[in-house]
Structures are given as structure tokens and as C-alpha cells.
Amino acid sequence: MKKNILWMLSLILILSSCQRDFSTNEKLAWNTNYFYRDYPFIELSYNDRPYSWWVPAPFDDYDTDENGVIVFPYKNQQYYHPVQIAQKILHFLASYHRTGDQRYIEESEKFAQAALDRAVRFKDALYFPYPFDWPFGGSDLVLRAPWVSGMAQGQMLSAFVNLYRDTQEESYIQISHEIFASYYQFERDQLFWVAFVDDNGYYWMEEYPANEPNHVLNGFIFALFGLYEYHLLNGDEHSRELFNAGLTTLEDHLYLYRVP
């Protein structure tokens, strides 16, 4: 994950160098009360994007089910882990770019189908729930299955956008649209949610959605990676606006995470 960390640090440095001019470049969003600033949107080459750097992936270094799909061993059972599956898809696709080996595409699509078989459509959005309970941060908070994650949504969005790019399979575009819909469902009292707007008008994607927001930084940034790649595919103003809203939140809150 070294290059992803460098990508995150580059994003942080860019934001920290931006001049804050609230009077001229802060806008009210199209359908709610979150704010965003206009940032220049740069289309990076493939080799400079998240997830492009991996060396070719082995096919046998992980636990699998009877179909060869990766599983997550936890408390003497095996589960399908959305982030783990998404990362494998992205690793396979990066490996395909490096080697041209068609098996990487086949494995990517097999893993993608396994994820879709367990996905849930809720209020026009597609979610990838976790099938096991998870204690958060060593505290008394336990996320009860089925729970969803902004990080999982973001990495699945990246996975399906990249699957479309490499296969031109039209169904992956529709799946990407449905995952993107989870980025603008803000009702925190519903069964599934990952996005919300705080009392100060800032837009967040939560890695661990809970009654008391915890704002995990890396999960939020992975969610924005997905939004970046979706906008490259789709190019609509709504995804650009939400991406800008996420960058605005990062710019104004990064100092809270810093340990001098």
C-alpha cells in the first residue's frame, strides 16, 4: 500500500497549499446544505492513479471458498470481506495491465460476481454489507452485521469503474452508478448509510458508520479515490461536486489528525 499512502500524502500537501478564500469559491451544493470549494480536477495517467502500482498478483496466497474466491478467516469461521474482495479485483486488474495475462481479467470478474451475489440494493443504491460483527477501535462499540462501510463502497466503486475500463462490459457502468448512489443518501437513521453532512455543512464518508461519527481518515480518502475514478468515467457535475465537497472537508479538518 506504499504508493497509496504517497498518493494520500500528495493530496494532503495539495490541499494544505490551497489558498482559502471563503468569500469567492465556497458554494452551496445542489440538493442539500453541504458546502464545497472548486478545486482543479486533473486527469492523471493510469500509472499515477491509485491501485496502479501493484506488482503482478499471485493466485494462491490467500484462503478461498470452493470457487477460488478469497475469504476472511475470523473467529473460526470464513467470511466474504468487501474491502478484501475489492482490493483483490484492483490488484488483478493492475496485474493485467502489467502482464496482459487474461486470467487476471477472469479472476477479477469472478470476484466481482461473488461480491454482487452478496450485495444489497437499498433505496436505489448498491451496498456491500459485512456479514460479521466487528468491534470498533477496541471500544464498546460493535458494528452489527449486516453493516456497511464508506471504505468498502469506495473501493468497490473503483473496482467496477476499472472493470468497465478493461472489459467494456456495459453492466459495470450501471453497477457503478448504483454504488455512487450510496454517496448521496444522507439519512443516518436508515438501515444502510455511509455518507452524511455534519451540523457545520461538511460532507463525510464514514468507514465505520455509527451514531457518534468517528471520521476515520484513511477510509474517507479511499472513498474519495472511488469518487475520483467514477468522475473520470462519468464526468457529471454531481460526482465532481461531491468530490469537491470531500476535498473541502479534508482541507478544513486535516489539522485535527496531525500529530506534530
Tell me the strand percentage band: 5-15%
Mean pLDDT value: 89
Number of strands: 10
Shape: globular
The number of helical segments is: 8
- Cα gyration radius (Å): 18 Å
Largest sheet: 2 strands, antiparallel
**Which residues sit in consecutive blocks of at least 5 with pLDDT less than 50?**
12-24
Considering DSSP H and I runs of 4 or more, what fraction of the residues is helical?
40-55%
Calculate the terminal CA-CA distance, rounded to whole Å: 23 Å
Strand order in space, largest sheet: 1-2
> How are helices and strands ordered from N to C?
HHEEEEHHEEEEHHEEHH
Structural class: mainly alpha
Task: Give the helix/strand layout.
Layout (H helix, E strand, L loop, with lengths): L1 H16 L4 H4 E3 L6 E3 L34 E3 L2 E3 L2 H18 L2 H16 L2 E3 L2 E3 L6 E2 L6 E2 L6 H18 L3 H10 L14 E3 L5 E3 L11 H18 L2 H21 L3
Antiparallel strand pairs: 1-2, 3-4, 5-6, 7-8, 9-10
Describe this structure in words.
This protein is mostly helical and 260 residues long. The chain is built from eight helices and ten strands. The strands form five sheets. Strands 1-2 form a two-stranded antiparallel ribbon. The chain has a two-stranded antiparallel sheet with strand order 3-4. The longest helix has 21 residues, at 237-257.
